[in-house]
Amino acid sequence: MTTYLLSILQGLLVTIGVSLGALIVAALLGLAGAAAKLSHHRWLNWLGDIYSTVIRGVPDLVWMLLLYFGGQILVNDIAEALGFRSGPQINPFVAGVLTIGFVYGAYMTETFRGAIMSVPKGQSEAGWAFGMSRFYTFRRMVLPQMVRFALPSFTNNWLVLLKATALVSVIGLADITNLAKQAGAAARGQIPGAAIIFMAFAGLLYLLITSISLLLLRRAEKRYSVGVKRGDF
Fold it and tell me: Span 76-82, mean pLDDT?
């Protein structure tokens, strides 16, 4: 049994890697989406609304299958049209990171949009009055304050994103869930209730990661809430 448990632990690094990579992609897309929805340009508002509405309205698994397998078919078709026998294979790790990041960027869009709107507009106007550019005003005045408003929803999105990484098992990536499933199938008949044992172990690993994440994010929340009355937060 020890061999199987160690093999599942190997998937821990893959799961963490996919999670952190997808979080970076989601945060960048979330900021871009929030900027689009708050823009004075109507066509940017339109793009931001379509992104956040359409992506959140389709199940994550559908996007994973569509973008990975559909993307591979598209790459092969383009390669054949150019005279090649087949196109390059899409890396499952990259596909998992980009797909999950793309999906949760829509959720981050609403998180950041609400946080930015919670910062009094007068502070930005004061920065502009002093000659600051919009980007500099956002970086030095709005961004540090919006973190406090964004952290609760950001924490929730991160926890859901982390659990959603289990979807990469359907595209063959050796994450915690995939390796636990393989271990359960390999040990069937050798260890009673092997599938349940190994999936439970996988669940404990996810719980460990989420518990550590909550601890760190709560500390960050306290740091950015210094000087703010609890009832005002």
Answer: 84
Query: Tokens for 167?
Result: 């979807």
How far is Cα of residue 114 from the mean position of the Cα atoms in its chain? 18
Q: Give, in order, the Cα–Cα distances in Å from 110 to each of 13, 39, 107.
A: 29, 14, 6
- State the Cα–Cα distance between residues 65 and 51, nearest whole angstrom: 18
Query: 4: how many CB neighbours lie within 10 A of its CB?
Result: 21
Q: Are 175 and 165 in contact (CB under 8 A)?
A: yes
**Own/partner pairs, 48-55, CB within 8 angstroms, 24+ separation:** 48/109, 51/105, 51/106, 51/109, 52/106, 52/109, 52/110, 55/102, 55/103, 55/105, 55/106
C-alpha span between 191 and 194 (Å, rounded): 5
Say how many residues make up the chain: 233
| φ and ψ at residue 147, rounded to 5 degrees | -55, -40
pLDDT value for 31: 92
Which has the minimum average pLDDT: 23-27, 100-104, 184-188?
Answer: 184-188
Burial 192-214 (b: 16+ CB within 10 A, else e): eebeebbbebbeebbeebeeeee
CA angle 123, 30, 63 (to 5 degrees): 165
Q: Quickly state the pLDDT bin for 226 (edges 50, 70, 90).
A: low
Q: What is the DSSP string of 7-55?
A: HHHHHHHHHHHHHHHHHHHHHHHHHHHHHHHTSS-HHHHHHHHHHHHHH
